[in-house]
C-alpha cells in the first residue's frame, strides 16, 4: 500500500497563477516569479541556472517544489512582501512607526539569500527608528526629556519607549551582528546599556546577551551593574538559593526605588563562568583603586607653569588634593570596587573647587581633562575587568 502523499496548502497572498517557481516553506506553497528572485545577485540567480540533469526540474509543480529549510512561513511572506510591495506600502513601513518584526524578518531572509540591497534597506529603516530612541534616552540622561514616556521600565520585560519589547531589541542585536550593520549594533548596545541601569532583570539579560554574542562593551556595563546591585554573598550557581538584591541600607538607598523589584523577587540564575567573572572583576577593580588612590593621574604641565610658576609646588598641590579626596568620607562610603563612582566624585569635587587650588591656570585645565580621560578609559575598557581569569 502506497503511503499517502503529504498535502500542502497554497499561500493566499503569494501563490500567483502566473508564477514561475514554486517554493515549499514548512507546509505552505509559494508560487512566485523568477525574475524578481533573480535580482540583486541573490543566491537564487545561481540556483535557477544550475543544470538539472535527468531529474525533474524542481519548482515547476506543487508535487516537486523547491524546499526552503530554516525559514518560517511568516518570515518568508514578509520577505516576499518587500519584493512585491507598492511604493506607498514601502513608504508606510519606512516611517517611524514601521513594523519592526516585519523589517527584522525581511532583513534576516534577505541576508540568508544574499539580497544585499533589500537587507540594507530594512536595517537602515530599523536603525532610523532605533537611533531616535537612543537620542531620547540620551536626553533623559542629560535632563533634556523628563516625560515618563521616555523612561525605561524598571520592572517587567519591555521598554515602553515606542513600545518595543526587550526581546525585540535582543533579536535586532543578533541581526545587526550577523549582517555587520555597525551603526545599528552600536545604537542597540547603547540602549541595552542604558536599560541595565534601570532594572536588575535587564542587567541580567544584557549580561547573558553580551556573553552569548561576545560584545565586550555591553559585557562590561552589564557585569558592573550586577556587581553593584547584588551582594557577593548572594551570587549563586544553579541549585542554590535565589538571588536577591543587596539589602544593606547604604546600597539600598542608591539602588532601590519605588519601581525596583522587591528583595524577594526571583532573578535569573548565573552560571559558574559568570560568577567567576564577577569575582574576578570585583578583585581587579578593588586592586585598581588601591593603586589609583595613592597615585593621581599624571598630566603634562603647561609650558607657562615651568616658566612662571614653581612646577614642583603645582604638582604637590595636585597630589595633596587627590589624596585628600581619595580618603574623604564620601569615597570611603562607596564600595571598594566602585572605581567609576569614586573617580566621578573626585572629578565633580575638582570642578567645584574652581580657582582655590595652588596650581597654574593651564595646569588646572589639563588636570581636569586628565580626570575626564581617566573616567572615559575605564568606561571604554570595563570588559577587561570582567574578562576570564588566566588559568
TrEMBL record:
Source taxon at top rank: Eukaryota
Annotated ranges, domain BTB: 19-92
InterPro entries in the record: BTB/POZ_dom, SKP1/BTB/POZ_sf
Protein name from the UniProt record: BTB domain-containing protein
Protein source organism: Amanita muscaria (strain Koide BX008)
Amino acid at each position: 500500500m502506497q503511503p499517502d502523499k503529504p498535502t500542502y496548502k497554497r499561500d493566499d497572498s503569494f501563490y500567483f497563477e502566473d508564477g514561475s517557481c514554486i517554493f515549499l516553506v514548512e507546509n505552505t506553497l509559494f508560487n512566485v516569479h523568477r525574475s524578481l528572485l533573480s535580482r540583486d545577485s541573490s543566491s537564487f540567480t545561481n540556483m535557477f541556472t544550475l543544470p538539472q540533469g535527468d531529474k525533474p526540474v524542481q519548482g515547476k509543480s506543487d508535487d516537486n517544489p523547491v524546499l526552503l529549510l530554516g525559514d518560517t512561513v511568516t518570515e518568508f511572506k514578509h520577505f516576499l512582501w518587500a519584493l512585491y510591495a507598492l511604493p506607498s506600502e514601502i513608504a508606510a513601513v519606512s516611517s517611524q512607526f514601521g513594523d519592526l518584526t516585519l523589517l527584522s524578518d525581511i532583513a534576516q531572509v534577505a541576508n540568508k539569500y544574499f539580497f544585499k540591497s533589500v537587507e540594507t534597506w530594512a536595517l537602515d529603516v530599523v536603525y532610523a527608528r532605533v537611533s531616535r530612541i537612543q537620542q531620547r534616552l540620551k536626553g533623559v540622561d542629560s535632563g533634556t526629556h523628563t516625560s515618563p514616556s521616555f523612561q525605561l521600565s524598571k520592572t517587567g520585560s519591555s521598554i515602553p519607549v515606542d513600545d518595543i519589547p526587550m526581546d525585540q531589541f535582543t533579536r535586532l542585536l543578533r541581526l545587526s551582528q550577523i549582517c555587520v550593520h555597525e551603526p545599528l549594533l552600536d545604537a542597540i548596545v547603547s540602549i541595552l546599556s542604558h536599560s541595565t541601569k534601570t532594572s536588575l532583570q535587564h542587567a541580567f539579560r544584557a549580561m547573558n546577551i553580551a556573553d552569548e554574542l561576545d560584545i565586550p562593551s555591553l559585557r562590561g556595563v552589564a557585569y558592573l551593574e550586577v556587581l553593584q546591585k547584588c551582594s557577593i554573598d548572594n551570587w549563586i550557581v544553579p541549585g542554590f538559593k535565589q538571588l536577591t538584591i543587596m539589602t544593606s541600607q547604604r546600597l539600598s538607598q542608591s539602588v532601590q526605588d519605588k519601581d525596583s523589584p522587591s528583595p524577594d523577587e526571583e532573578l535569573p540564575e548565573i552560571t559558574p563562568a559568570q560568577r567567576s567573572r564577577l569575582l574576578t572583576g570585583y578583585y581587579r577593580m578593588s586592586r585598581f583603586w588601591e593603586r589609583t588612590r595613592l597615585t593621581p593621574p599624571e598630566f603634562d604641565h603647561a609650558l607657562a607653569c615651568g616658566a612662571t610658576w614653581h612646577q614642583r609646588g603645582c604638582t604637590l598641590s595636585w597630589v595633596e588634593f587627590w589624596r585628600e579626596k581619595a580618603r574623604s568620607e564620601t569615597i570611603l562610603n562607596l564600595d571598594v570596587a566602585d572605581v567609576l563612582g569614586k573617580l566621578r566624585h573626585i572629578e565633580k569635587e575638582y570642578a567645584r573647587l574652581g580657582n582655590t587650588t595652588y596650581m597654574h591656570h593651564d595646569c588646572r585645565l589639563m588636570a581636569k581633562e586628565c580626570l575626564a580621560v581617566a573616567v572615559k578609559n575605564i568606561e571604554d575598557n570595563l570588559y577587561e575587568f570582567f574578562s576570564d581569569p588566566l588559568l
